Structure formats: structure tokens, C-alpha cells
Amino acid sequence: MSSYRDVSFWFDALEDDSLSPRPALDGDTTADVCIIGGGLTGLWTAHYLLGIDPRLRIVVVEKEIAGFGASGRNGGWCSALFPQSTAALERRHGRAAAIAMRQAMIETVDEVGRVSAELGIDCDYAKGGTLAFHRSATQRAAAEADVASARRYGVDPLELLGPEAVSVAGAAGAVFDPNCARLQPAKLVRGLAASLERRGVTIHEGTTVTDFAPHRVQTDRGTISADNVVIALEGFTATLARTKRRLLPLYSLMIATEPLPDSVWEEMGIGHGQTFTDFRHLIVYGQRTADNRFAFGGRGARYHWGSAMRESYDRVPRVFEHLRRALDELFPAAAGAAVTHSWGGPIGVPRDWHSSAWYNPATGIASAGGYVGDGLSTTNLAGRTLAELITGRRTELSRLPWVNHVSPRWEPEPLRFLGANAGLVAMQAADLEEKITGRTSLAARAMHPLVGH
User: Cα–Cα distances in Å, from 443 out to 279, 389, 429, 432, 440?
Assistant: First the structure.
């Protein structure tokens, strides 16, 4: 990459951060805990480990710079979303466990804000909730079903809003979820890394991990011997041969516009701290940034053979054009706004769309991930959970249903390639099918069991 500022709008907006890499590992070393990956999962784990035992020697190794992956590229939603629906969690783990997972995710939204403020990290955190617009009879039925499901479990306080409460083109209403905050993710991850350094954590950047084993991490610059090893690579998990088929790297892309006047935002009905989406199947998501831009993203980029990841995959003109059209369709008042940034990156998708946090005390190896794009908050819950597991603590966190869940491995090629891209095509077809027929898509119904519903 020519410049780390090209990673995302979020990185480019870091005026007080040179983004210069920290020193690489220089020879063999030892640690109590070695964390592979300098994103939010690894950094939150280090933060909470120090909270339990400030004496721990923690080393973080990162191939690029802290936040280079999804942690510095995402949509800036600190939400209570979890890839598995509450109903799916209930079917697999039981009602009490499903409700406990939902409650933990809701509490995590506030935890991120609390700790950020405590550490003095100004990451533009503002808890304004999420608006999910419905723009057809089919989408309204989906919205009503979501609200009804939430009421059955009594945890998520979703509210169905009428047309008088929304200003989106063609929208007849929306579902409002108060449990979401807007933030600037690069400020959070870079601020967290700096905070950990001040507390004695060593972060080696420009250091490539080539393999790991119990109590050992092999890099291109030396070996780290550690009592515990934490794998925190999310979308980049497939870069290691040992974890090649654990998570599928699926690309999500984003655009950011120039800042818009307050009067335009008032016309569009999106307040500071609010995030938004709608009920289409090919997901889109957005926020109003602290400096009044749209940061808007969505799916649409294909999966690449062999879980390949290249810098060129971060930018797909066809998908950027789709995002621009979708943004203009939702908010015609912003149609003339210039797009100043476009970027993307891989998210991590487990075979059963079930995130996990696990630890094997016999080997000292821990891992968390598979957030399917819902990681900005879930990484915090992962960090708290792994810290408990590694130090032998046991609270309600270590009893949550995602703890020590093991997802099946993805199929070998060509099945992985065919299946992943068939799913993408199915979601595109589902939106078109509903637009033409006015009925719930058969293609979407067929996909629901495969994507956590």
C-alpha cells in the first residue's frame, strides 16, 4: 500500500497520527501472552488482561500497523447486532442462553463508550441508535416480524416508526433500535493501541506471523515463546495455513462523501450519532460522521478463489457505483455530494455464521472472531471474555453460548468458491424478486438457515 492513509477515510482523517509503523520484532523473545493481530479483538483482550493482572507481559504482533484490518475500515457502528438471530441462538442453545447473549451485546455498546471515555480516547462516540427503513410491503412485513420477535424475548427495545418519523425517499416507516452508537473506528483502535503502550504492552508492527503452536509464535523476525497465544486475525485468518478454512474472507466496501450542511441533514432526518440501514437483502449501512459526511457501505464484492486477499480487492468500481446509486436513492438531497473516499476490506465469516470466543487451557491457545461485519462492538465482548478465560476467571461472560463454540470448517475449493458466490447472487436475486413480485423472496427464504436466521 502506497500510504496507510489510503486504508480508509477513517485513517486519512487521523490528523494527529503519523501512522508510522512501530518497531518490528528484532529476534526471539518471551511473553506471558502473545497476541497475533493488532486489531480491536487483540487490543481489547490486552486491555482487559491488564485490568485483571497489570503484571502480565503482553506482546502484540501485527503485519502492517494497528487497525489495518476491519478495525480501521468498518462502518463505525458500535451496535448490539450479532450474526446469529435470537431465534437461531435459542434453537441451538436454549432460550435463557439466547437472552443472555442478547443482553451482553446490548451492554457492550455502553461498555465501549465508557472505556473510551475513561481512557481519554476521543473517537466521536455518540449513541443515537439505528434506523432500519422499510420501503415496500414486503420490507414492512420483515420490519414487523423483527419487532414482534424482539417483544417475544423482551430484551431488544425495538420500536416501529410510521411515515411521519422518516424522511427517506420511498420509506413508509422504520424500525428504531436505540442500542447503537456512531463512532470513528480508526480513532478508537489507534487510541487503544497507544493506551496499551503507555501501560507496558509491546506492539511489534511490520512483523509477519508465519505459524503458531502451543506456547510459540513463529514470525519472519524471530520466535515468541508465550504461555498463551491469542489468534485475533478476523478476515485475515485465512492468511495462515493452519487456519486457512476457519473463516471465509468476504469483502465489504464503503464510500464517504464531502461534508454536507446541517440544513441538508435536517431535511434528511438523520441526527448526529444515528446510523441507518434498510431491509434489502444485499446489505447496506451508513452513518452521519462527526464532520457531517455520509460514510456508507455494503456488500456486493465477490469472494475470491482460495480465500485470496489482495490490495486490489479493496476497491471494486462496480460496487462503489452500486453504493453511490443506493445512497442517492435513499437520500436524493445528497445526490450532488462529491465522493471523497472509497475503500474496502475483508470481514470474517464462519461456516455457520456463529461468532465465537474460545480458549484451550491445555494448549494455551485462544481465539475470537467470525463477526460477519458486526465486530466493532463484539470485539470488546471478545476481549473481556478471552481475558477471563485466559486468567481462569469465571463470570456470566464465560458462560455465554458463544464461548468455546467451534464452527465447521469451510469446504475446500471449488465448493467454497461456488457456495460463497452463489450466496451473493442469491441475495441480489432476492431483492430483484421482491421488487418484481411484491412477495417475500423464495431465494431469501432458502438462504436464511445458512446466514444465521
Answer: 15, 40, 7, 10, 9
Strands 209-213 and 202-204: unpaired
Buried b (16+ CB within 10 A) or exposed e, 156-194: bebebbeeeebebeebbbbbbbbbbbbbbbbbbbbbbbe
Model confidence pTM above 0.70: yes
| Fold entry, domain 124-184+248-351+413-444 | D-Amino Acid Oxidase; Chain A, domain 2 (3.30.9)
Report how far residue 162's alpha carbon sits from residue 100's, in angstroms, rounded to the nearest whole number: 30
Q: Which three cell numbers stand for residue 421?
A: 458466490
Instruction: Tell me how many degrees the CA angle 311-316-320 measures, rounded to the nearest 5.
Output: 130
Contacts of the segment 149-156: beta carbons below 8 A, 24+ positions apart: 149/85, 149/86, 149/87, 150/86, 153/86, 153/95, 153/98, 153/99, 153/102, 154/99, 155/86, 155/99, 155/102, 155/103, 155/106, 156/80, 156/86, 156/102, 156/106
Hey, which residues does 86 pair with through a beta bridge? none
Q: How far is CA 101 from CA 49, 203, 307, 371, 450, in A?
A: 22, 31, 30, 14, 20
Mind listing the pLDDT tens digit for each residue in 201-217?
999 999 999 999 999 99
Contacts 24+ apart (CB under 8 A), 195-199: 195/47, 195/119, 195/120, 195/121, 196/43, 196/46, 196/47, 196/50, 196/58, 196/60, 199/50, 199/54
Dump pLDDT digits (tens) for 149-174: 999 999 999 999 999 989 898 899 99
The residue ranges of every structural domain in the chain are: 124-184+248-351+413-444
**Alpha-carbon span 225 to 29, nearest angstrom:** 6
